[in-house]
Design brief:
The protein has two domains: 38 residues, no CATH class; 132 residues, Protein-Tyrosine Phosphatase, Chain A (Alpha-Beta Complex), CATH 3.90.190.20. The protein contains seven helices and six strands; from the N terminus they run ααββαβαβαβαβα. It has a six-stranded mixed β-sheet, sandwiched between helices. A hairpin with a 2-residue loop joins strand 1 and strand 2. Helix 6 crosses helix 7. The relative contact order is 0.18.
């Protein structure tokens, strides 16, 4: 099976795919069954969840990404220019760990949350377009207006959700609804 045939992309997903394949072979599952599962596997809700492709702009819900490591894996798997929706209650994030990845992949940042100072300060010298949005609906509308065909809007906040949302599920659901309302 080629990498292009896999439903999942990115380094972490590749590692997970290899581990799952080895486990499946160890319990004697057929190659055809393994191939079928790996080619149409869907992520869990709120974790790199494809929401929609609207006029060539792909929208990805990664609301469960409440720390830098999770955001790193989400961005690393992106193969298109990223419009990153981030923010919330910062949990002591060290944004320098994703600085190069953001520089290489992100074309705009849209901050959600009450205090976005840390995100803005971390990236203002490398990302020329940084916006602040008081609601998820406005963040999605801004992302859509900034985006062009071939871009990916990645809502991968790196922060807790409790300043504007009940929890990460609420934040993810509001993102999905805002995308579907475009």
């Amino acid at each position: 099976m080629t990498l292009e045939e896999l439903a999942q992309t990115g380094t972490q997903q590749m590692h997970n795919t290899m581990a799952a394949s080895i486990g499946a072979k160890l319990v004697s599952l057929r190659k055809e069954s393994i191939r079928e599962c790996l080619s149409d596997f869907q992520n869990i809700e709120h974790r790199l969840e494809f929401v929609a492709n609207i006029h060539g702009i792909e929208f990805i819900n990664d609301s469960k990404a409440t720390n830098i490591n999770s955001v790193w894996y989400a961005m690393e798997s992106a193969n298109k220019p990223v419009i990153w929706i981030a923010g919330g209650i910062d949990k002591g994030n060290d944004y320098s760990k994703i600085l190069q990845l953001v520089k290489d992949k992100v074309k705009a940042i849209i901050c959600i949350g009450i205090d976005n100072t840390k995100i803005i300060d971390a990236f203002k010298n490398i990302i020329p377009e940084i916006y602040e949005s008081p609601s998820m609906e406005e963040a999605v509308n801004t992302a859509y207006s900034v985006g062009i065909k071939g871009d990916q809007v990645l809502m991968s906040p790196a922060c807790a959700s409790f300043d504007l949302f009940d929890n990460y599920e609420d934040r993810g659901n509001k993102f999905k609804q805002a995308v579907l309302d475009l």
